[in-house]
């Protein structure tokens, strides 16, 4: 749990940098090109909602540890092409 002050990131360059950092951390190498700022600016979900990037400045952090489910982790070599190809 994080507690603190949250702010919406309105700067497109900063929002794109944050989204790219998340992609690099959680699915490194999955996409063959860097995230384009136009994609962040124009993206809408299938329900019509837009992406909103928020910044949390934490004042208090509490946590507990959960077991990792190995079969649900991203693994090196997995990418968007193999996940979306039809056999």
Shape: globular
Integer-rounded radius of gyration: 16 Å
The pLDDT mean sits at 86
For this structure, the quaternary state is single chain
Outline the low-pLDDT stretches: none
Distance, first to last CA: 42 Å
Give the spatial strand order of the biggest sheet: 1-2
Helicity range: 25-40%
Question: How many strands, what sense, and barrel or not for the largest sheet?
Answer: 2 strands, antiparallel
Coarse structural class: alpha+beta
Helix and strand element order: EHHEH
Note the beta-strand portion.
15-25%
Number of DSSP E strands: 2
Number of helices: 3
Question: How is this fold's topology laid out?
Answer:
Layout: E1 2-8, H1 12-26, H2 37-42, E2 54-61, H3 80-84
């Amino acid at each position: 749990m994080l507690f603190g002050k949250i702010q919406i990131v309105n700067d497109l360059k900063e929002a794109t940098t944050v989204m790219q950092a998340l992609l690099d951390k959680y699915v490194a190498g999955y996409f063959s090109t860097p995230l384009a700022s136009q994609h962040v600016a124009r993206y809408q979900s299938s329900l019509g909602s837009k992406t909103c990037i928020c910044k949390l400045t934490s004042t208090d952090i509490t946590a507990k540890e959960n077991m990792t489910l190995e079969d649900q982790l991203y693994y090196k070599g997995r990418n968007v092409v193999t996940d979306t190809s039809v056999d």
